[in-house]
Amino acid sequence: VTYKELGHVIAVDKDDNVIVGADSPQFANNPSDPTKSVAVNAPKVTNYHLANGQSETVQPNSDPSQDVKVIYDKDQGSVKVVFHDDTTGRDLTGVGYDSGNADFDTPITYTTKQDLDNLGKKGYVYVSTDGVIPDKIAADENTAVTVHMRHGVVEITGKTPIDQVPANTVEAVQPDKLTKEVTLTVNYVNNDGTPFTGTVPANAHQTITFNGTAYVDAVTGQIVNAKQENGQLVIDEDNTKTPAVIWTSDKTSFDKVISPAENGYHVISVSDHKDGNDVGVIDGINFDSANIEVTV
Fold first, then answer.
1. pLDDT tens digits, residue range 149-171?
2. Closest-CA residue to 235 (of 129, 121, 155)
3. How far apart are CA 277 and CA 273, in angstroms?
4. 3-state class of 116 per DSSP?
């Protein structure tokens, strides 16, 4: 009497490759007929599951010495990377990554570098990342990664190069709108219409220059309140004041102008800001003050 070894269950993938490391159970003897074998359970294979149409009970071949292949599909998982705008509280579109359901061990080649570069050009600033992007899809895992961004802030003054001004910046804070001058001009006339021949004081024409500084949302171009945080300008969410241009100047008043002598004449009037026979100090000048003209 000659015996031949009974066949085994061989786990293969959809491409008919033997799955390395999978168990290969042998068919059991048929206790009623020594020339036959009986069905066994399909083995459990880590990170795989039986393909559609494959039974959990594997029937032996008509030749009990033959191996029987059972097809398995890879378990699936997913990876999703979302960019979140912390300033608005919304997720950003057109960036990020979504693998969808994919077989385990599928390589993930996506990195955030290109998206971060593109968002940086649009005025966004990186904040932090929740989670880690894996190198490969993990079986039965849906990995979610959130990249936090915020709106950057740009300081604009009258000296800011135009190519550094964010797109959509409102007209009121364009560099050419952030320098304003207020002037005082004192004119001297003789009441009989003859030309004034006296020496006009050097300060009969004075100019006060106001320089504006605006803080602008680098994404939207809107004026915002800003503060320094970790060496960077950020939107000051705690400041509830209406954002506005900050105007500064080294002075806010015009100096007194002493009326000069005119041979053969005397001062009879000072049209405004009179201080005796002179034009007195004029206080309270600000960036939106009108130009002042005085006649003596």
1. 999 999 999 999 999 999 889 99
2. 155
3. 10
4. helix
Does residue 231 have a pLDDT over 90? no
**Residue 274 identity:** K
Average pLDDT of the residues of the chain: 96
Q: Under a CB-based contact definition with an 8 Å cutoff, are residues 136 and 106 in contact?
A: yes
The whole model's pTM is what? 0.76
Please count the other Cβ atoms lying within 10 Å of the Cβ belonging to residue 23. 12
Residue 290 CA to residue 161 CA, distance in Å, equals: 28
CA distance 266 to 198: 11
**Chain centroid offset of residue 218 CA:** 9
Residue 122 pLDDT greater than 90, yes or no: yes
Evaluate whether 240 touches 218 at the Cβ level (below 8 Å): no
Residues 6+ apart with CB under 8 A from 74: 13, 47, 48, 103, 104, 105, 139
